[in-house]
Each structure stands twice: as C-alpha cells, then as structure tokens.
Amino acid sequence: MAERRAFAQKISRTVAAEVRKQIAGQYGGSPQLLKNLNVGAAASNTVPLTEAVEPVDFEEYLRTHPPIIESGPLRDLIEFPPDDIEVVCTPRECRTVGQAVPEEGHNDAHVRDCVRSYTEDWNVVNRRYHKLGTGFNPNTLDKQKERQKGLPKQVFEADEMPDVSAYQDDQDDLKRRSISIDETPRGSWACSIFDLKNSVPDALLPHLLDRAPNEEIDRHNEEHRKSNRHRELFALHPALEEEEPIERHCVPDVPKEHFGQRLLVKCLSLKFEIEIEPIFASLALYDVKEKKKISENFLFDLNSEQTKGMLRSHIQTAAISTLARSAIFSITYPSQDVFLVIQLEKVLQQGDIGECAEPYMVFKESDTAKNKEKLDKLRSQSEQFCTRLGRYRMPFAWTAIHLMNIVNSAGSLERDTELEMGLPERKGSWSERRNSSIAGRRSLERTTSGDESCSLSSFRPATLTVTNFFKQEGDRLSDEDLYKFLADMRRPSSVLRRLRPITAQLKIDISPAPENPHYCLTPDLQQVKPYPDSRVRPTREILEFPPRDVYVPNTTYRNLLYVNPHSLNFANRQGSARNITVKVQFMNGEDPNNAMPVIFGKSSCADYAKEAYTAVVYHNRSPDFHDEVKIKLPASLTDHHHILFTFYHVSCQQKQNTPLETPVGYTWIPMLQNGRLRTGNFCLPVSLEKPPQSYSVLSPDVPLPGMKWVDNHRGVFNVEVTSVSTVHTQDQYLDKFFALVHALDHMFPVRIGDMRIMENNLEEELKSSIAALNSSQLEPIVRFLHLLLDKLVLLVVRPPVITGQIVNLGQASFEVMASIVNRLHKYLDTSQDMHGRNSLLSSYVYYVFRLPNMDPNSPSPGPGLGGSVHYATMARSAQRPASLNLNRSRSLSNSNPDISGTPTSPDDEVRSIIGSKAMERCGNRMSSHTESASFLQTLTGRLPTKKLFHEELALQWVVSSGIVREGALQQAWFFFELMVKSIIHHLYFIERLESPRKNRFPERFMDDITALVSTIAGDIVSRFQKDLELVERLNTSLAFFLNDLLSVMDRGFVFSLIKTYWKQVSTKLYMLQNPTLESLRLDFLRIVCSHEHYVTLNLPCSLLTPPASPSPSVSSATSQSSGFSTHAQDQKIANMFELSVPFREQHYLAGLVLTELAVILDPEGEAMFGLHKKVISVVHNLLSSHDSDPRYADPEVKACVSMLYLPLIGIVMETLPQLHDFTDSHIQWGRPGGAQGSADGAGGDESVEDGNSMISQTVAMAIAGTSSPMSRPSSFLLNPQASRPHATFSAESSRSLLICLLWVLKNADECVLQKWFTDLSVSQLNRLLDMLFLCVSCFEYKAHVVFTTMQGKKAFERMNSLTFKKSKDMKAKLEEAILGSIGARQEMVRRSRGQLERSPSGSAFSSQENLRWRKDMTHWRQHSERMDKSHRSLRFRDSILLHSPGSPTQTQEPLVVRTRAELEHEALIDGNLATEANLIILDTLEIIVQVRFTLLQCGSQGTKISDKYSLALQPS
C-alpha cells in the first residue's frame, strides 16, 4: 500500500495539461491505457472500445481505390477471387449397376416426382476456398506433424548427461577456490595472479582481433540470423486444447439408403441321414422381445443336382438370382433377443407332418445298406409325389440360432464348431455359459447389457454346424407359437428337450458383411457394384423390417408389397376342403389373363411368377400359414389393381376323375381405397363362387347380391399386407397434400379419394391440407422429407392461380416448415451436430434444395406474362409496379416520416417498423401480382412467373409472430441456410455472381434482412438469461448467416449488420456486466472471422499503410515530407499500432477482434476474467491460420497481413503485469515500486538493485549511444491497479498470447517497427524490453533427458542447478561487454572459474538475481566435453521416463511414460521453437539498437528525438 500511495503522490504532482500533452505524443500508447486514465475522451473522433465504430463502405472503397498492383500475391489480397463460389451438379452415386427406376409407361405426376427426387444429381454450392478459413485450421496434432517434417535438430547442453564423478570434482574444486576468491579484493594483483594460475586455456577464436566495420558485422550477423529460419512459427507451437472449433461447419453426410449393422450368412450344406427327396430352406430374423419378424425371407436350395432333377417337370429354367446361397442381413436395432430362424419345407405328400418326418428320425446313414429296400421304396414314392404334386409344399422342420450368442462367443469358437441347437439343456442359458467360459468373459468385457452391447461389426467369422431340427407341428405354425418356442429356447429347462429331434447337419458361415461385397443383388434384384460377371452365383441383400421406426429419407426407388397369409377357418364350410392351399395373384383386371408376373420367385425357379402357393397342412380345415409372398408393385396403381386369393383343396391321393386341385373359395383386396394404397391386417370373408364382373373396385366386405359366402359372410381368412415403398407414403395427410398439389396442374373438377374438388374450394382445401401436415406421423414425414420440402418451396415461389387470383401460400408453407423442422429437432435429437443442426435437414439444404425449374437453359416466359415481377433483383426496376415501389419505400425506410419520434433503441425502431408497416407491406406486395388480371383469368394452371424464395422467406420471417416466429427462431439455422443457398442459386442462374455487389439485390430485401438481424440480436440480448440453449443456437446461426452473406452480398452492408448486433450486445453489457453475454459475442465474432477471405475483408492494403521510407535520411530530416516533421505521417504510424478509430473502421473485423482482446484483458474487467483463454484463443486461431495459409506464404504478403495485428503489441505490453511469470523471481512487471520510484523515495538504488529486474539504465544508455545521465520528464503514467495478483493469466493463456506477439514481430515490416520504436515513451520502452525478456523465459528450452537410474537423475539435477547458476550471470556478462568494462583477461579469468563474481554494490543486478539472457537457450551452445558417454548411450529405450522440467517455482511434475519416438519429436519441436523465439527477439532487439543510430543521422530534429530516446533509457 505504501508503494501505491507514493505512486499516487507522484501522479498528483503532474499537471493535467502536461499529461494530455505528453500522451498526445505517445503514439504507441494503448487505447486501453487511455481509457483507464480518462484522457482524451473529449476528442471528437474518439469512440470508446466498448462501442462499435461505423464500418467502411467496403464496395465503395474498392471502387474508389483501384489496386495499383497488376497481379501477384499482394493483388490477391485486395479482392475475392473470381472463382470463389461455384454451383456444382454432383452426380448422385448409384450403388447399383443400373438405376432403380420404374418401367416405362404412363406414370402419374407423384411417381415422376419421386423418381426425379431419387435420381437427379446433387446440387451443391461450393465455396472453393472455404477450407482455408480458421474452421479448418491445420494447427491440429496430426496436421502439425506433417508441417514439422524436415526440422533440423537443435543441440542444447541441457540435453547432455553429466559425468557424475567429473561433476563432483568440479564441485570440490569450486568449494576450495570460493573461499580465496571471495576474500580477495576484486581487481587486485593477487586476484589476477590467482586467476591466471587456476585458469584453463580456451581454444583460440579465429579472426577475433581482425578489424571489421560495424556495418559489416551487423550485416554478417543479420545474414546468420535470417538463414535457415522456420517460416511457420505456429507449426512449432502445440495446438490449443479445445473441443471441435465452434466455427467449423462440417459438410453433412450424403443422403443414402439406410443400412443397419450388416451380417453375412453363407449356407454351405444341408445333409440328412437319408437323401430321398428335395428339401427347401428359408432364413429369417425374428425379435422375440418385440414379437416381430425383422427381415424378409431368404429362400435357398442346397439340394444336389440329382435331387433337384425330381422336379424338372415343374421348373423349366432356374434364374441365377434364385440360386443364391448367401445373404446379407441388416439389423438396425440389434439386441439379445434376435434369432435366426431356419425353416424347412418339402414337397407335399400324402400323410401328416409326423408321418412324413418319421423316416428321417428312424433311419441312420450307417444303416443305409441294411435298409436299402425300404429307402428305395421311399425314394420311389417321393419321385411320384414330386411329379404329381411338385408345385405344392408342406411344412417339415425348423430350428433357430440365438444370433447374439454366436456373435458374442465368436472370439472363442473354432471354425466348424458344432452347436447342438436342438438341445438347449445341454448348453444352459446364454448368461450361464457366458459367465462360465473364457470367451464369455471376453465378450463381457467388450459389451454391456442392453442394445448397445450388440455389435455385429467386429466379431470373428464362425462356421456353425446345426445338428438338430424340430419337427413342425401342424397345429402350431403361427407366429405366436414360434415366439413361444424361441423364448423357451433361452431357458435352461426347455420344453423343446422333450421333442424328438430330426438329425441333420446344416453348415452355415456367419461373419460381418464386407464393405463392398462382390456379386450382390438388392431386394429388388438390382446388381450392386461391383458385379463383374452376371453368371456367378450371387449374394442376396435381405430387406429389413425394423421393429421400430427408422428416420431416414428415401433416396432410391423401391415399391414392394409383402402378403403374409396367417390363418383360414373353414370349419363351418360345407363339403370337402382339407388339404388347403392359397393361390396368391396380383391382378390388374378381372380376367384370369390379367395376372401380372410380379411375384418374386422362390429358390431354383424363375425371377418372377404370376402366382404363388402357400404350404399345405395335411387334412386341416383351419390351417395356419407361415408363407411370405413378395410382390413388385407397379409404379402407378389403378382402381382395378387387386390381390386375388383363390383357395384350393389339393388331392394328395391320385384318384380317377378327381382333379388335382379343386377351388373352394375366393377373396380379394383392392389395392387402392380413396386413392391410397391399402395395407394392414385384414380379416376377409371368403366367397364360395367366382366373383362377378367389376368386383375389383369393391371390397369383399360389401355383400354382393347373389353370392354365397363361407360362414354367412363372416371374416374367416386372416392376412397381413405390408408395403415397403418409396412412392406410397402410407400417411393420409401426406397423401392428400401431394394429391392436391398435383391437382393444380389439372383441369377442374378433380377427384381426390372420395372428394370432388372444385376450383372454388381448392384454395381452402389446399391450405387445410398444408396445416394438417402437422398431424402426420414423423416417420413418413422423414421418409418423404426431400419431396415434401421441395413442394412447400414450390408453393412459395410459384403460387397457384385459382379463379384468376394468385393464392398466397407463403405464410402457410413457412408455418408448416417451421413446425416440421422443430419436430425433427425435438424427436431426433441424437442426429444433431454441435450447433444443434439436424443432420437430415442439413443434408437436404446442402445436397437437395434447389430453386424450382432454375435451369439457365430453360426458356423465359413470353412477353406480357408477368414480366413485371420476373427475377426482381434490381432495386426499383422501371418495369416494377409503381404502387409496390411506393409502398416499399414508405414502409421500410429507416427515415420513415410516419414513425413518430426517435426510437430509443434498435429494438424499438425495428418493432415500430414491423408493427406499423410489415403486415401492410406483405399484403400490398401480394396484391401487386393481381395487376395482370387480364391474362391471369385465362390461366388454370400455375403462374408462369416466379417469386424469389429468399425474398419471400425473409419477408415471412420478419412478419411472423407468436408460435410461428418462435418455431423459426428455434431452428433459425435451417432458414438461414435455405436463404443463403437460394441467394447463390439465383445469382448463379441469372449470371450475376460476378456483378457489382451493390446492384445484386433490391432494397426491400436488404431492409428485410436488416430487420431480421436486428430482431434476432434483440432476442439474443433479451433471452440469454432465460433460455441459454436456444440463445446459443441462435447466436451461432446468426454468425454463420453473416459469414455466408460476406461471400455474396454488399460487404459494407454485412458489416453494418454486424454493427447492429454489436451495438445491441454492447448496450446490454453496459447495463449488465455478464460474462455469458460476452462469451456469446466472442463465439459470434469467432464464427464471422472464420471467413476464408478474412484478410481481404480487413482491407490490409488500405490507406493506413505507412510511407515507403519511414526512416528519414539526413537531407529529408527538416523537410515537410519527413516522417519526423509531418504530423500526418506520425499519426498514420500511430493509427497502425493502436486501436484508433481509423484502424477500427478500415480494418473492421480485425478491429473487433483486437478490441475484444483489449476489453476482456483489461485488469479492471474482473467479471470477464474467465474469458481470457477464450479471447486469446480467438486471436491465436486466426494467426495460426494465417501462418499456414498457402496464400500468405510470400514474406511480403505475410508482412501485409501482420499489419492488421500491430495493435496487439501495445495490448500485450499493457497486460504485461497480468501475464504468468515464467521466470523464478515473480517479477511484477511494470510495478511503480520498481524503476518508477520506491516506497519512501530514498534508497532508490538499493531498491532497484534488489527488487527490480529491468534492464540496467546504464546499459540502456550505452545502447542508446550516450553515457551521461540526463534529466528526463515524468514517465508515462501507469495504472497502479494493473498488477493485481488475482488477475494473473494462466501459463497456457500467457504462452498463447506471447506466441501471437512473436508472430507479429516476426512478420511485421521492420521499417514500420523501427518508426514506432522511435516514438516510444520511456515507460513503454522499458515495458517492451520486459516483454521480450518474458518471451525468452516463456519459450526457454527445457531438457528432455531419460533417467535410467536414480543416480543419473540426481546427477542431472545437480548439473541442472550448475547450468542455471552459470547461465543466470550471462546478463551481467552481456551488460559489462556493452559498457566496455570487461577486458579479455578478466573474461578469461572469470570463464576459468566457472562463475562470475558478485557485481559490486550499485550494479543493477546482484548475483542472486534470476538470469535474463540464458546461454543454454541459444542454438549454438557447444556440447559439454565432460558428458559421460555411457549415460548418453542409455538415453532412449522403447519405453522411457521423461523428466518434465519444473515450473517457475521449480516444482517438478510427475514422471510421464513416453515412447522413444515421442521424446525425440518433442525435444526436436521444443528446440526449434526456443531457437526461433530467441531469433525473433534478437531481430527485435536489433531494431531497437538501430533506432538510436538512425536518429543520430537525422540532423538537429533527429538529435532531439534521440535525446528523448536516451532519456527513456537512463537510470532513475
């Protein structure tokens, strides 16, 4: 406190006028310092840092300041490249050899739209240089290693291991000599003799005594410093530890067909004890918990060719697709309840299932010879049945494999391991076996309970041998019975153990599916790439039926129907009907010839068939079925399409005059009902007679007159029909919406379902159908998301004309879009990125969205057809209706005379504008379209002219309110990105991407954008304390929007939008110092500044560029154009180094960044202390991006870029007291108790000597070229509060800030730095030197040594202390060399002693002070000759311990295990960083030294400034 009081007294003695006068001359002073001193606030051109300045009119500046440079890297800094943005049609990747499209024919409009949506190319807006923005900063670990290749190895003594015995000898020698040395007076004859006797001669230095001009020495030194320098400083600095950069907008995934985890199942062989007939098999997945079949059937045939020959009369040619024996199953929701069920069928024969299965359970393969006659008889009977009944099948046997049991145990299974799947009691439950086996323990480590544990992507392939099957029970064939059996299989005491098994051997291979399998067919029989040979047996992809909804948009054409007959009840039917089969046909008319060949074939048959038969249960009048009939639906359905079911009694025993099959019933399902596909579970009545003519348009539930029905027309046949279609939505609201949209292109009246739509009620129906989309199920909305959003956009840009009037559907479409995107965000929150962007929506915007019919080659509408509104992009076009122009100018002008009074805030202004005029503007804008009524009345279709989507979207958003506005705010990013893509598409298709930016958009659209940004900024400011999650999303969305607009709109206009946001946040921060709001603004700023042309946006080659020769010659020293005599040029240099108003206006974004840095680092801003790291990382990220940017590789360009950050030097100087102290003395930089004065005003020398580590003023005077102390004026006033201990930065933040400073010093123009150094005040020069010293300490090289023994570790610690003690005297040694008070003899003596003597009293440094310039940090330090070679050979091993050097307080970190390569690489990087940092500091010191000599050559005026410079360096 005493020091502060003394300092305060010192300030109070200074006259205010003197202070103002002195500060006016300190061009390098920090604006933050000015603010603290409250000096100069009355200046007319001063804007506080907390307020936004008016940005430069960017486009006007470029127009009035054409570039002087014709071409080259500097020319590229001035303007964006002409190929900056491109609209690319990226071919959609098709995974199949041929495109999946419906067959040619008359397809309705909806089908055509679906096919177009699934086949057209992606429409992508590409910012070609986007990857050069800071969002893709290469300063990451992986990319840094690439940039660090080829670094030279720097050699440091600290890395060498000491010889323990030699080191001990040195210590003993020093102890013996220290007594006599300390007791001998310094400089005496005895001391000199003693030194000579005990000194060790050094090697002679060549050319040491040669005469050489000082200029030659300086030039030689500069060449050495500049040679072999690393160009990218940040490549040597570790990347900041932060999460995914907030400014990174990752490219969304390409929309593609959904697949779950994929499993490859290969069926190798099926062998029974006897082989007497063909056996047919099928595989399917079942989820027991969900009680749902989760895949379609895979039908395969493992019979020998001889056995298949028994059916040659029924199978003409087998298509290659039906010969598949391997299948790929997809499982989206794997769980412990999934079973792979294998079902076997055989050709129908006389007798029930038990009788037919008996031979397989009785006969053994070993008894074949003994039972030859019986087997021959059985084979003969089978041949007869195959010949007569070959088209019919009967259930035979089944088994199941607990899939996750196999997957989780695959690590321990040997190939061809037998699994007794039919005898679960032999194995016990899965959980028991898992806990009792090593494989189970491994599996338990890999997985946990629950669905997350079931991974199908990484298990080892296993070959399974299934040895037991269960006989099918004729009365237990339903799915419910199957689920009970499967659940029972998992129990230890299974009921199935009482069943008599059928012995067989089924070998199957189970493995994870490869990424790109060869010879693969989709469920639609499309060939998947690669498919080299069509004759090879294929692998079938099996369609998944997920147990729960999968939210993925459709991307391929697929139109499949699955018919699953469940049961039939003919118990009350009269007559003989026992061996019942159901023939399923898909008909497009009533005639028998109208059966369509669209039913997928089973195994070993044709691809498609006209009919399919269910399996027969012998002598059962009420059979259950487990068949699945797969149908390829026609693209367009009519009222005559239906599924016909014909029930037959099959005569198994051949009798005379008895037909093979007798029809016993008929029923059907019409495919369309009210224009929609009929699916679901049906319980149908069965007719005893053939249906009458035109039956297909009616449901069998309708009692047709004269028809006889089974069981009095009750439902007796249960069947399930499911659809897997990307054409049929299966949602009534979506169906109606799409139908009404397509009805707009037809003549009225139109029929939609059971409704007859007239033209006069179309508008009402259309609006109600749009609103009803909110009632749709989410799953179909997602599946048809792309098509749905396309149609809503179409209604906005091409409003329909109904009864001669344009119907405005923009508001209704905007409302439902806001509702849909919010539903997706709410229910699909797992598919969002770090910014809350739903992946489905972002993919739509990036790849799919395009303006409707925006083909540059398409013909424009004819004359007279709405030319007044077509592509209204020019402001106030002459062809535009005058009434609309008048309305726009009146309603959106900020100088609107109708607005009474002056708005008190931007919020009030925007609210008044919107509240009074926006709704009127919306109505008038629409009414203008009716002026062409004379020809519109003749139109019954769509308006030939178009609105612009981005303009309409901005308008609807601005005028929205209530729930709609809230919904839009919740997902603002979506509408912003839609708007930006619409803008770019519009400019691209009318070929105006290269036109002047001021002429690209009408004024009304610019006004809407201004109002929108202002209101959203108001929401951020007003709601950040209530709903932070929403505000964070809104804040980043707005920032990305403005970032995008910088690429396409008037950049000065976008700067004004940024200012609007800035002003509102600043106003709130002035009232409420809240770090959360400041953090939001930092995020906003970081995103905006991540633009790939950030440097160009800051006008780096603007008028603030200094004069060509800032260091004047002697002849020009008195000239009016001299840099020292012209105040304008002095001010120009000053503006470059401080956050002046000209700097902040001209370099707008850089000014905002550095302003934020200065404000947040302000020691008085205690509330912002937690944001230090964040704001420093913003600057660090920008500079590291510039450092690695190939566009700025040229040194001249990089110097130009560094000009944008010159104020950073002053900011760091001002924050020096707060930076982490990397030395050991904990010097409080810039404290007034140091060089500025002592506590009691006396004993200044002692206090400076003991407590201050600033450079000795005598030395400074020697550098300045004078040795006589002179009186000096009061030093620049420092804020005594600037060094409060609680405001100290972390070491990481301080290091990041200092590396940024070094980058600026490294790349800045030396002439500019020299000129600025000339104008530095006394205190600023001292602080600059202190800052450089802190940089030395910060980037000091730390030893990287491996300790193989504790003895080696202790030896290193002793050696390190000796090195430290020797190196800390280097500063005193350097000072004496500068002062000329040390000669060669004294130097030789002192070097022989190994340490410097204590400086005499009065010196600025004592022997106990910390080192300033450390010799061990210089890259030319020679190796110690006393290193123990054995220690060096043991330095590295495969696994080693790295001794991390202590912190500034010498507290050591724990030992960290490092590999040899890691240690070597880290030492290499640290060494190069330390070397480069010190060379940058030396370059800067050289500039400081040269300033003095330059000033002395400038005549009388230069001498005055030189004297002032010398005053700054004299001792206090």
Describe this structure in words.
With about 1500 residues, this protein is an alpha+beta fold. The chain contains 51 helices and 33 strands. The strands form nine sheets. Strands 3, 4, 5, 6, 7, 8, 9, 10, 11, 12, 13, 14 and 15 form a 13-stranded mixed β-sheet that branches. A four-stranded antiparallel β-sheet has the order 21-16-27-26, with no helix packed on it. It has a four-stranded antiparallel β-sheet with strand order 20-17-22-23, with no helix packed on it. A hairpin with a 2-residue loop joins strand 30 (about 800) and strand 31. Helix 21 (about 785-795) runs antiparallel to helix 22 and helix 42 (about 1255-1265) crosses helix 47 (about 1370-1380). About 45% of the residues are buried.
In short:
This protein is an alpha+beta fold. It is built from 51 helices and 33 strands.
Radius of gyration: 44 Å
The number of helical segments is 51
Extended strand count: 33
Most strands sheet: 13 strands, mixed
Which tags fit this structure?
51 helices, 13-stranded mixed beta sheet, 4-stranded antiparallel beta sheet, elongated, disordered N terminus, alpha+beta, 1516 residues
